[in-house]
Amino acid sequence: MVVHNSPPFSATGYVGGSLLVSLVQKYPLTKITALVRNPEDLDAVSAVGPTVHVVLGSHTDREVIIRAVSDAELVVQISYSDDLELVKAIVVGLKLHKEKTGKRALYFHATGTMTYAGEASGELRKDYEVWDDRDKNRLRKKVDINAPHRRIDLEAIRAHDQNVADVYVICPPVVYGLGTGPVRRINGQITHAVRIFLEMNHAVYVGKGTNIWSHIHIRDLIQAILTIIDHAIRTQNDTPEGDQTAERDGFDNFYFTSAGEHTWGSVIEEIARTMFQRGLLKCPSLESVSEEYNRILSWNVGSNCRVRSARLEALGWRPKETSIIDNIEECVEASLQLIKSDRVLNFWLGDY
């Protein structure tokens, strides 16, 4: 199947921009509608390829989003994982698409694993269970409705359950490495750490720093998303369009995208060493802070968040890139450039 029209939101973002470049390479004849907020970025995004159609607007421009989605066979939402109104507008567009064409569109909804993090005050807790994306019952029933991203994710999944669209939820943990997008090549927790350490003139970690998070290199993540898109296109017709009685469960299409794990203490130690060598910190040593102080920093590196990508691996995907520790130096350098440009966005909002 050829995807004739696909709008990836946040084409200027860290993950969104990298995905845009890869989509153009993989589907060179496909018209891709890209939403761009800043007029200064229009030329850079347009230059990605002749099939890229740029629309100026933001995630709050409801009518622009509804119109773009209603015309699309495939939709990728990879900008704001905490914007319920954005997802509601996308669902309206998906309903209009089905009304006009009689067919369900494919909708790829990006979120984040913070939903599944367990508070630990900087320690590895033995009672924290690793999340597996094959455990649908736990994913659906064992998560607090007030957890980060949760209400937004359920809104997207509900569109699948109600036969509005074929929805796939993509849930990455910490993303690291240099992206390939036209505007932003880095962002996220490492960039946020660099900014905090610059302001404080020293590095901090939470508790003992033994708490664990899953992670994935940006290039492995892009290949994971492309693998899921390929799978969705191949299997789209498994449930007949007219069969309203067929049972649908959006958690059948839920994918963690993890390639490995790190302790936050080890990552922060490497960030501090790299920054000290560049003369950016007064010393390379680390200071332990409380979970409460961590919340003040809006940093969120005191928890455990461990996930397994069983569904993705069943599709044949395997990570290929080097570890997060091996990438710290180039991530710090790219983060410094981004901070100097004053274009660092709040990763907590999921603006990848």
UniProtKB/TrEMBL annotation:
One of its GO terms (cellular component) is cytoplasm. Residues 157-231 form the NAD-dependent epimerase/dehydratase domain. This is NAD-dependent epimerase/dehydratase domain-containing protein. Gene3D superfamilies: NAD(P)-binding Rossmann-like Domain. The lineage of its organism: Eukaryota, Fungi, Dikarya, Basidiomycota, Agaricomycotina. Transmembrane segments: none annotated. Signal peptide: none annotated. Coiled coil: none annotated. GO terms for molecular function: aldehyde dehydrogenase (NAD+) activity.
